[in-house]
């Protein structure tokens, strides 16, 4: 439960930073998930499911960060992205992401 709450808090903080500081100071803030990688926390979980599920190379996150910061990607500021996503598909969906305000946490009633 604490893991989920901390992730939600981080995403909300990132969105708030983007809302309050992007236009005023040009700050871009991205909530970045590293992909399905093994972490010290996941290594301690019992069962084989984690070994079968967490198969992404940790280096993917570094490559994604290079792409993310190689030019200004204001359209992703304040949004949640995952390092293992295909960046060409992400860019192809840019307009929809902006128009529909996607990649943000919302409660729909």
Automatic annotation (TrEMBL):
InterPro entries: NAD(P)-bd_dom_sf. SUPFAM superfamilies: NAD(P)-binding Rossmann-fold domains (SSF51735). It comes from the Eukaryota. This is Uncharacterized protein. It comes from Hyaloscypha bicolor E. The lineage of its organism: Eukaryota, Fungi, Dikarya, Ascomycota, Pezizomycotina.
């Amino acid at each position: 439960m604490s893991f989920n709450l901390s992730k939600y808090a981080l995403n909300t903080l990132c969105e708030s930073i983007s809302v309050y500081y992007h236009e005023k100071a040009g700050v871009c803030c991205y909530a970045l998930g590293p992909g399905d990688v093994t972490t010290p926390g996941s290594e301690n979980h019992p069962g084989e499911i984690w070994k079968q599920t967490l198969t992404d190379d940790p280096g993917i996150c570094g490559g994604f960060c290079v792409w993310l910061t190689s030019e200004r990607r204001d359209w992703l500021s304040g949004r949640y992205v995952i390092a293992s996503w295909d960046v060409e598909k992400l860019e192809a969906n840019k307009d929809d992401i902006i128009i529909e305000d996607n990649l943000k946490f919302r409660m729909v009633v």
